[in-house]
Design goal:
Elements lengths: L1 H7 L14 E4 L4 E11 L2 E4 L7 E6 L3 E8 L9 E4 L30 E7 L4 E6 L11 E7 L6 E4 L2
Parallel strand pairs: 2-5, 4-9
Antiparallel strand pairs: 1-2, 2-3, 4-10, 5-7, 6-8, 8-9
The chain binds copper (II) ion (CU).
The site of copper (II) ion (CU) has 7 residues, from loops.
Length: about 160
Amino acid sequence: MLFALLLSLGMSPPPIDSLPSWVQVDPAARTVTLDLAATPGDSGPTLNGHHRGDVQLVVPLNWTVRWTWVNRDTAASHSLVVMVEREKLPLEGGHPSLENALSRAVTAGLRPGQKDLTTFVADQAGWYWMLCGVPGHALAGEWIGFKVDREATGVVVVLKK
Ligand SMILES: [Cu+2]
């Protein structure tokens, strides 16, 4: 009824599920699967076209996160690691802040076309960077935001700016 009324007024109903296609949620299994790619962008390397934290993924505490990641940049090696957010982005990737939240070859990077698959549990609430660990890449913008939220009841993707 309300839906029909909104349509009749020429208004769109609010989106029911605004998650992008690279985020797949299984609420029953408390699992989120991320389909990620390192891709070149106009102003440096990106993750799925996002950079400099212009997107933040919010995951409830103790959910399982799986990622399939691929380097789709034909010109450079890249990697991925989750590190707790601090004052400054690191020059290069280090130990992951959540166990197993890293690709292989964090600082050397994986070559064009190489893939990585990992699974980790978001078992510590806080703000993190999901960043490329190759020296200089995070500073060049190759990172997105990742928040583990004890209040969250589902996965949310927040677009910044
Ligand atoms: Cu990179």
